[in-house]
Design goal:
globular; single chain; mainly alpha; 118 residues
Length: 118
Amino acid sequence: MYSFLKTLGISILILIVTSFVGILLLGDVLLVSMVVLLITYFCNGIIAAKTNNTYPYFAAYMSAIVLILINFIFSIVLLDINVFINADIVFSALLTGTLVSLVGAQLQLYLRRRSEHV
């Protein structure tokens, strides 16, 4: 449980930092949101695979789902955007977030196995 919370905390911190840097440097909202999504969920998968040795894919998947739900709640409560009206938005967010997170976990496990053989 502690490793799961640590993964979420680090991922949220990465999300905040990359958002501020992206908004200050790039300015294009669509490009910033795509870069932030890729960096945040990819790092989420890497960190989840590092901290949970027994079930790395499950940890990456569940932490991605929780991050997506936190993003939805943030959008509804603070920005007053009802994201649950359109099912395509929910499906797209769940698909891309979990897919990028699982790719990050797969890369972490591949690099770990490769370093063990050397």
